[in-house]
Each structure stands twice: as C-alpha cells, then as structure tokens.
Amino acid sequence: EEKRIREFYQSRGLDRVTQPSGDDTVGGDPMGLPYSTFDHSRAHYFRYDEHVSLCLEKLRPPQPPNPLCPSQQKYVRCSVRAQIRHLRRVLCHRLGLSLQHVQILFDNEPLPDHMTMKQLWLSRWFGKPAPLLLHYSIKDKRR
C-alpha cells in the first residue's frame, strides 16, 4: 500500500507529507494528525477563496466603433463563491437602478441568479484565457 501511495504522489510531481504514527502523537491529536496553525474561525471570509477575473461590458447593438465614445468596460475580481445575484446587486448599486432593470448575460443568454462564478467559469469559460467576458443589459424602465 505504501508503494502504491508513493507512486501516486511521484506521478503527479508532489511531495508526500508523512503523518506521524498513532503511537507518537506529540504535537498532534489522537488520530495522529498534526495540529494546524491555520485559524479556521475566520476561514469563511472570501479572502481565503479562489478568485475569478471578470470583464463586464454593456451590451450594445452592433455598430461601428466610435473613437469619441469610450467603451464601458469594468474589470472585476471576485470570489468563485459569488453568485450572479451578487454581481447584479453591485452593478445596480453602481448604476443607481433597481434589480429588475439589470440583466447579466453570457453569449446573449441571461444567467440565473443562483449560478456561482465557479460554475460559470467551469461550464462556459474553462480553457479560455482570463478575464471571463460577461455583458449586462439595462431593460427599458417604461416596461
């Protein structure tokens, strides 16, 4: 079994961390695992998560580029646990609009509010270079 475990780690180029046996639990718990110095009480904060880079562009009908009108691109870096609803709320706050007027799209397809950035990245952007390109549209207020 030890040989199989060693081969597993070597095939992946990893160094195997050996755990002390159950007899010598000095500095560890009865299971033989060493104590961690990481403070788990604050681990739920987003700063310990993976991050994803996004580029948010306002969706516009196809038109020739106008050098006098700069594109409205916003670059965002957020936690992979963030959801589309969180991004919409921040965008609505920045634009001074209510939630029903802003929609976030990927390839002209509206994204569900409950989708996380990690789900979005893995399902639609995996293998492509960062940043993930998303569009937002502002619905007409009269409707």
From TrEMBL:
Any GO MF annotation of the entry: promoter-specific chromatin binding
CDD domains hit by this protein: RAWUL_PCGF1 (cd17081)
Domain RAWUL as annotated: residue spans: 74-137
GO biological process: negative regulation of transcription by RNA polymerase II
InterPro entries, A to Z: RAWUL, Ubiquitin-like_domsf
Superkingdom, taxonomy of origin: Eukaryota
GO cellular component entries: PRC1 complex
Name used for this protein in its record: PCGF1 protein
